[in-house]
Amino acid sequence: MSDGVGTTLVLQRGVFRGPMAATDAELYATVAQGEAARERHGLHLSPGATVDTDTYFGRLPAGYFRRWTTLTQVDLAFRFEATARSRVTVRGSDHTGMVHDLHDIDLEGADALALTVDLTPFTDGGNVWLTFMAGDGSLTIDDVRWSTIAQQPLRQPAVAICTFNRPADCVTTLATLVSDSVVAHELLAVCVVDQGTDRVDDQPDFPGVSAGLSDRFTYVQQPNLGGAGGFTRGMCEITERHDNVNIILMDDDIRCEPESVLRLNAFANLTTEPMIVGAQMLYLLHPTRLHVGAEEANLEKLRAGQWSEHALHDADMLTERQDRIADAGYNGWWTCLIPAEIIKTMDLPIPMFFQWDDIEYGIRANLAGGYRTVTLPGAAVWHMDFAVKDHDDWTLYFSIRNSLITAALHSDFDTAQLSVRLFREIAQYLVSMRYGLALTMIRSIEDFLVGPEILEDGGRQALVDIRTERKRFPETTISPESAIPGGSYDALPLHPAGIPPAKDKFDLVLSKRAATQLTGRVQRGCVTIPPQNEHWWHVSLFDQVVVTDASGSGYRVRTRDVRLARQLTKRTLLLMRRFRADGTKTAQAYRDALPRLTSIENWRRLFETPER
After folding, report:
1. pLDDT score at 2
2. What does the pLDDT look like over 7-25, one tens digit per residue?
């Protein structure tokens, strides 16, 4: 790719199987009839075979190109060799999912095909794909490319990877990224920011991977400043060296699809205004399932990960198709492209250490700079399923504290409404005997009220403190089966949940369950509760429960403690009174401090501050 007018820009290539053997090839191309061999960028169809690319990675998201770019048509080209008359059909779906044929072309001999596909019918949504049908002889397809002539200077992609004590995963991601020669050639720079003690450059495969990128590769070590600090350092390193660049932030432990880099960068080069372009997330443990097609945050409820209107969520992409256009409020930084122009205009992320840094940045980019986010179908990586991460974890501290900071910066911040919501959530933790989790949330609100000074060290001390405090509570620890009262999970009585209370009765039931716990009118002895049934309104009926951890690696034993429940309830009530009194003033303090917190000067100070 080179700068200048009239450059051919490849939007996406035909990929017919994944970058590694473990990837489900059905996400790329389906053999609808007969026999066919799928290679990474080629197909070999036996006589009578049919291969369809109406698949997750096979479709061109025509509706997204019509909505967000200037494209009204796209060029399709590929090479073929047909030993007998064969056929290719260009098909499209509209926003309702109805499928129709756009072109039907015979293929004979060995040649190259080129045609133009009209995108004007796809304003409301839809996709385009190819179906190959071999006749009485074999058919070979190679080098499928969807492209256009870009009438503007083009930005090259650069990748910034943040890593913390996952050196083998990081090297695997790097190796997969550069295994695609086209993508590796396009990369302007790759920066790895290593914040761990188990160093990436100690891995045996590191020299070979880094040498393949030559002087385009940068390896930086710094103190652990969380994802916010790692990705921000990557942004700084790349923008200091390059102006006209699209920076792709990428997690270290993903399973990488190199084609996504090409697709994100091409789309970003065609948008009518600079945009954040995010890759979608497929589940690592359930690799054909999509996390969400596009998501947004509800700041009034302090909730992220809310799926946007028309967006698929927890969907099997072997059977589902994203035909409707879904508008995103932000994109997770498992893999997300941000043009350097946006970074230079918006300043840098806020040093919140972990969680909500990507959300806050996406919201700020939109509200302050008018920069939208699109989550692009067909551009994806595999990331560990969120369902295997137990909610009872130190990460809740950063989730709640940082959601409050984000809401303070970008919403009306109704302290009365928020205090009711926060109190209700803490109370549910208390009645379900999750005392450590309640304390984690209490601390997050207390530290929010400290004001922007809590971010002065980038969050490092907060991480140490909350982990230390949580150790006081036995149920925050994952225990082996030998630690279960009675010595066996199966020996304890099992109690599935009954019918949940009506939502308009939640507060009434919560009050009753609190009284039940405090007065001891509970079922005595220890019971087991299936993890899918650990609702607060059910767990609170018992004196002691054992629940399997979401990771499946052990058990959590929760035991009723009236003294502790009363102590934490009193602390919560006092905190909510203070939140209502001081929350508005604290919110203004965060707004006033935002330019300083997100400045390059503040971040340089944090980068150079050694670990304590």
Report:
1. 42
2. 899 999 999 999 988 899 9
Q: What's the gap between Cα 70 and its chain centre?
A: 27
Residues 371 and 410 in one domain: no
Residues 72 and 12 in one domain: yes
Amino acid 422: pLDDT: 98
Q: Cα–Cα distance between 285 and 279 in angstroms, integer? A: 18
Contact 269, 353 (CB under 8 A): no
Give pLDDT, residue 612.
Answer: 62
The answer to whether residue 559 sits within a structural domain is yes
Quick: pLDDT tens for 175-233.
999 999 999 999 999 999 999 999 999 999 999 999 989 999 999 999 999 999 999 99
Which of 99, 126, 150 finishes a domain?
150
Q: What is the mean pLDDT of residues 299-307?
A: 94
- DSSP-assigned states of every residue in 319-379: T----B---BSB--TTEEEEEHHHHHHH-PPP--SSSSHHHHHHHHHHHHH---EEEEEEE
The tokens describing 240, both together, are 């200091």
Residue with tokens 């600079």, as numbered in its chain: 274
CATH number (domain holding residue 165): 3.90.550.60
Active-site choice (194, 358, 390, 549): 358
Q: Give 25's DSSP letter.
A: G
Same domain, 421 and 555: yes
pLDDT average, residue stretch 463-484 = 92
Bridge partners of 147?
10, 75
Residue type, 533: N
Identify residue 514 by its one-letter amino acid code: A
CA distance 437 to 452: 24
* Domain span holding position 557: 395-565
Distance CA 313, CA 457 (A): 36
Which helix (H) or strand (E) element contains residue 591? helix 562-597
User: For 65-111, how does the pLDDT look when each residue is reduced to its tens digit (9 = 90+)?
Assistant: 999 999 999 999 999 999 999 999 999 999 999 999 999 999 999 99
Q: Where are the beta strands (DSSP E) in 256-308?
A: 276-283, 289-292, 295-298, 303-307
Known catalytic membership, residue 358: yes
- Residue 419 contacts residue 442 (beta carbons within 8 Å): no
Beta strands 7-13; 542-548: pairing state = unpaired
Residues 342 and 434 occupy one common structural domain: no
Count of structural domains, the chain:
3
Strand partners for 456: none
- From 367, 388, 409, the end of a domain falls on 388
Q: State the CATH number of the domain containing residue 138.
A: 2.60.120.200
The string over 342-354, giving b where at least 16 C-beta atoms fall within 10 Å of a residue's C-beta and e elsewhere, is: bbeebbbbbbbbb
**Residue of higher predicted confidence among 402 and 531:** 402
Q: Could you give the CA distance from residue 363 to residue 373 in angstroms, rounded to a whole number?
A: 9
460 found inside a domain: yes
Q: Look-up: residue for tokens 């179908």? A: 377
Please check whether residue 91 lies inside any domain of the structure.
yes
C-alpha angle 468-421-415 in degrees, rounded to nearest 5 = 95
* Within-domain flag for 288: yes
Name the residue with tokens 């006033």: 592
Q: What is the pTM of this model?
A: 0.94
For residues 138-146, average pLDDT: 98
Q: What is the pLDDT of residues 579-597, one digit of tens each?
A: 999 999 999 999 999 999 9
Structural tokens at position 587: 């919110």
